[in-house]
Amino acid sequence: MVPVACRVAAREEIAPGTVSLTVGDCARSVGVPAPGQFNMLWAPGVGEVPISLAGRDGDDVVHVIKAVGAVTRALCALQPGDALGLRGPFGTGWDLTAADGHDVLIIAGGLGLVPLRPLIGEIVAHRARFGSVGLIIGARSPSDLLFAEEFAVWGAAVDLEVTVDHAPTDWTGRVGVVTQLVDAVSVDHDDAATFICGPEVMMRFAAREVLERGTPADRIQVSMERNMHCGIGHCGRCQLGPVFLCREGPVVPWARIDASMKVRGR
Fold first, then answer.
1. How many domains does the chain have?
2. 133 is in which domain, residue-wise?
3. Could you tell me the CATH number of the domain that includes residue 33?
4. Contact at 8 Å (CB) between 205 and 230?
5. pLDDT tens digit string along 207-239?
6. Spatial CB neighbours of 119, under 8 Å, sequence gap ≥ 6
7. pLDDT per position as a tens digit, 121-163
8. Is residue 266 part of a domain?
């Protein structure tokens, strides 16, 4: 529960209001997150929030943060050399072994691409382990697309489709939601291991699309975000039905949360 003192090694604004922070060599003290896990980042004097792993740089860890509240704004304002605290890693990661020898479908919406990026990197680096791989990426606008400079490398290894909700007149790519592109990539849905992360409503509809095409619910993994506060399942803020997402998630099989996701909110 006590954050390890770290410093910002590098900072880059990668989209409007969205910053990539490389957190300097504290991984030896707290452990290196697996793809899909998260750390709790502490902005001194402001507060603490859960942030997914976006990648690694040696013993440094990379997080992508969007400034949406007091803590995330404070973290985004940090500069190289500034201090912050880190707890973790917490939660479950993507089970890539479930994809060995199978087709793979990855659906990412907005910031949901962040925890999927290390998974994509593993698949691209070990491409021969898998069958056909489809990758669908969506964002609100072209300027909101994260890691666009990596799309060429990913597209050379997998079947990549990119779409935005709305675009300026000079945009030549697709416009629409990610669920419209499920049939645009070539995978055998009966066989595919499916990984989904993005806004909750997007994940519900994406899961429904692949379920309708024959993918079993236990072959679909999603990364769920809730207001994680303690990171160890004590405070209950991240509870979704019987699941404490900070401890049993954030990556969970769709079969585990399907019933809870059908409960109508008040």
1. 2
2. 96-261
3. 2.40.30.10
4. no
5. 999 999 999 999 999 998 877 777 777 888 888
6. 35, 36, 94, 96, 106, 195
7. 999 999 999 999 999 999 999 999 999 999 999 999 999 999 9
8. no
